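Q: Joint fold for the lines below.
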Amino acid sequence: QKEVEQNSGPLSVPEGAIASLNCTYSDRVSQSFFWYRQYSGKSPELIMSIYSNGDKEDGRFTAQLNKASQYVSLLIRDSQPSDSATYLCAVNIYPNTGNQFYFGTGTSLTVIP
Amino acid sequence: EAQVTQNPRYLITVTGKKLTVTCSQNMNHEYMSWYRQDPGLGLRQIYYSMNVEVTDKGDVPEGYKVSRKEKRNFPLILESPSPNQTSLYFCASKAGGGGTQYFGPGTRLLVL
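A: Joint structure:
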C-alpha cells in the first residue's frame, strides 16, 4: 500500500469556485503534512503545512487534517486560472532516528476562466 | 537570495558511465535530500542527510550514492547508470526539525 494516496484527477473547476483536493496516508506515525504546488516543468513550492488536527487557513487556502481518519485536504477558495497546476500532498515521518518524506502522485487542477 | 542550485540541469549519458549531479544550498540548512520524479509514481525520496557526515536511505536508494562532507553540498552519484534511472531529479533542503523544504530547479537525466 502506498504511503500517500491522492486522486490524480484531472480536476476542473470554473474561475471563482472552490477547489477541493484530498489525500490519505497510511502511516499512523506521520508527524507533519504539506501541500505543494508544481507547475509543469518546475520544482514543487510549498503552499501549506499543517501539524495538528483541524483547519489552518492562509489567504485563499485552507488545509484540513484529521489524524484519526488519516486524511488531509486542501481547499482553494475563489480559484484563479493561475492556480492551474499539479498539487502534491506530502507527509513527513520520523522512523527511529530518521526523517523521511513521502509524496502522493499529485492531483492536476485546471481552473477554467 | 536563498536558493538551492543543481548542476547540470539537463544531462544525456550512456549506460554505465559514472556521473555526479551536484546540489548546493546557501541557507545553512541541516537537512538535505534527493528525490526522483517519474510519471505516475510521483516524487520519491532517494537519500537524505540530517547533517554533515550523516546520510540515510530513502524509499528508492538502489543504484545511487551520496555524501555530505560539507553542510552546503549534497552530491548525488550514479556509479553505473542504467536506463531505468532516466528521470527528473530534485534536490531539496530545510532547516533541522520542522520548517519548509526548498527545492532546487531539477535535473533532467536521460540514460541511453
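Q: Anything notable?
A: Chain A has a mean pLDDT of 91. The radius of gyration of chain A is 14 Å.
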